[in-house]
Structure formats: C-alpha cells, structure tokens
Amino acid sequence: MRARIVDAFAEQPFTGNPAGVVLLGDSGWPEDVLMRQVASELNLPMTAFAHPLGYDPDADWALRWFMPLKEERLCGHATLAVAHALAEDGVAGHVRFRTLAGILSTHAASDRTITLDFPAAELDEAPLPEGLPQALGAEPVRAWRTGALRDLVVELADEASVRAAAPDLAAISTLNQRGDIRGLTITALSDPGRSYDFVSRFFSPNDGQGEDAVTGSAHTALAPLWAERLGRTELTAFQASERTGRLGLVVKGDRVHISGRAVTVLDGQLQLDR
Asked: pLDDT band at residue 43, thresholds of 50, 70 and 90?
C-alpha cells in the first residue's frame, strides 16, 4: 500500500498542514480498522483514503478522512493533498469526490494551485460561552455557530490578539464537549498593509490535535463571514499557526472556493504483508 505525506497549503516542505494520502485501487475500501491503524501509524492531523469510482455518474473518486482517533466528516487540507497527489500521478484538472459531506470537487491548475469547491457553512451569531475569555487567554468580541460544521467562530479585537492568544486547551476541550463543538476558531481583521485580509487560528483538542496548522474546512465559515464584512467575495486568508498557511478564497453563493498549493515530502510503501 503506497502512502504519501503531503504538506497542504504550503509552498515548501515543513509548512502548511501535513496529511497522509493513500490512493487505493478500484477494489474499494479496506476494513475501517485498517484505515484507522494506518492513520494512527502515520500520526498526522489527517490521513485521506481514496479509490476510483467506475460506476458513479456524479463522482470520479470516493474519499474518506481518518484521524488517529476517529473518522472525520469533512477535511479541507487532506482533500487538497489528495488532489495534489492525483495531479502528480497524471490525474489533473477537475476531479469529483463522493464523501460523507456530499459531492466535493477540486481543480488542479497548471501552476500547481489546487482549488477546492466546498459548501459554505451556516453562520448564526451566538452568545459568548461562559468561561470563554479564560479558555482563550484573550477577550472575545462576538461569536457564531456554524451549523453542521459544528465549529464556534470567535472574533477578537485585532490581529495581535489572535497571534498572542494563549489558550488553555483543557478548558477549550471542556467548552467544546459542553457545546457539541468540533473546533474553536479565533479570527480578526488583518493589520493594515498586510498581504492578506484576515487571520485565524483553530483549536480542536478533543480530536487529539490541540492547535491545527491550516484548517481548510474552517474557512467555509470564515470566508462568508469576512466577505460580508469587507463587501467583496475574493479574499486572502492567513492561518497564524506555528507552521502557518495562506489560503485564497472566493465566495460563490452557497459555495466557497478554497485555493492553495501542496508539497509531497514523503512517498513510500507500507509493509502490511509481513
């Protein structure tokens, strides 16, 4: 079984968000327990498995995402990583994936840019949860729930507040469990003169990750939020994690196009038959 490690939303190795990529043959899925074991062995934020579909008029490949602890319903950076791996193997252009989140599509351009076509998340302003300032180590301004995405998006006063936030991950884990929250995003408008429009960070300690490096799925909520605020549909985002990542965003009605590049940093063979 061939496995790759791909840094997504990255221009060079060891930046962006790493994902495992396992492209399978047309015989379908192996046992779920094996996919979880592979994800645990690679020990990355996400490992994506995909196999071609020869019988589905709506999709070209089936795609699933596994964390070391569980299967995920939607993942942006690992989808970008799969599209990058397919392009390396000669499957470029438009690819449609059947997933737990519905049909998702990607496009690989000749300059290596991958664009994801994802559904925009719902945004409903919500009260600030009790204990949120202490959990974040920062003072929140407003908060939104994101429907089926199950994230809590929290606006802070400025970019410096986002970068300087020192969250208590145990407290965030408790808050997320209490509110049935997948992950907590903090965000703010960028400082004047930046080459991006807004900044964010994402925390999901219940998934065993702590802080995520670059979270494509979170931007299905952040893109429409900041597009409405700034009065335009094309934006550039910067996720201010330790590894950092830059995302191009276009809001098109109820869809969000998320663009970035990727770099393969490891390509090898899993020895499973010994």
From this structure: very high
Report the candidate in 216, 243, 269 with the shortest Cα–Cα distance to residue 41. 269
pLDDT, tens digit, for every residue of 244-260? 999 999 999 999 999 99
Category of 178 on φ-ψ map: left (φ > 0), alpha (ψ -120 to 50) or beta: alpha
Amino acid, single-letter form, for residue 158: D
CA 183/CA 14 separation, integer angstroms: 23
Range 103-112 burial, b when 16+ CB lie within 10 A, else e? ebbbbbeeee
- Amino acid letter for position 58: D
Domains and CATH numbers, the chain: 2-120+259-269 (3.10.310.10), 124-250 (3.10.310.10)
pTM above 0.70, yes or no: yes
3-state secondary structure the chain: CEEEEEEECCCCCCCCEEEEEEECCCCCCCCHHHHHHHHHHHCCCEEEEEEECCCCCCCCEEEEEECCCCEECCCHHHHHHHHHHHHHCCCCEEEEEEECCEEEEEEECCCCCEEEEEECCCCEEECCCCCHHHHHCCCEEEEEECHHHCEEEEEECCHHHHHHCCCCHHHHHHHHHHHCCCEEEEEEECCCCCCCCEEEEEECHHHCCCEECCCCCCHHHHHHHHHHHHCCCEEEEEECCCCCEEEEEEEECCEEEEEECEEEEEEEECCCCC
Distance CA 217, CA 202 (A): 11
And the tokens for 197? 């429009």
What is the spatial distance between Cα 21 and Cα 6, in angstroms, rounded to a whole number? 7
